[in-house]
Amino acid sequence: MKIACIIPSRYASTRLPGKPLRMIAGETLVHRVYERAVLAKLPDIVIVATDNEKIESEVKSFGGRVMMTSPDHPTGTDRLAEVAASLPDYDIVVNVQGDEPFINPDVIDSLAKRLAERDDLDMTTAAAPLKEDEYDDPSAVKVVVNQKGEALYFSRSLIPYPRNEFSVPPLKHVGIYAYRRDFLLAYAGMKQTPLEKTESLEQLRALEMGYKIGVIRIDSEDIGIDTEEDLKKANRLFERSHQ
Question: Is the pLDDT of residue 30 over 70?
Answer without folding.
Answer: yes
